[in-house]
Amino acid sequence: MKHPISIALSLILAVVISLLTLTPISVQGAPGSDKLYHLLAFGALAFPLAFGSPRNAVWVALLAIGYGALIEVIQPYVGRSAEWGDLLADAIGACLGALAGWSAARLTTFVRKAIS
Known about the structure:
Elements: H1 4-21, H2 33-52, H3 57-74, H4 84-115
Helix pairs in contact: 1-2, 2-3, 2-4, 3-4
């Protein structure tokens, strides 16, 4: 990894995601809004790692999807329910975040080369 800040940011996001997804909730949002939150959270998780190491963007997406699957496996043991839809939203978010991170890294490299 070129950017230790990318790693640190993703680790912080992973902890926040764990806290939000593994604690019981009492308030329900709009129907389906949780899927949007999953997509955004896992996109945010994958983006910095893929930006910091664009050559590993596919592995970043797979790692984030695996993390989402692990959370879904743990949830029934902490008073939450596992849902395939949540895992699908996690996977879509992870792939989009990794793609965006890879694209941003490539664009940054292109701009740096064009300027110099």
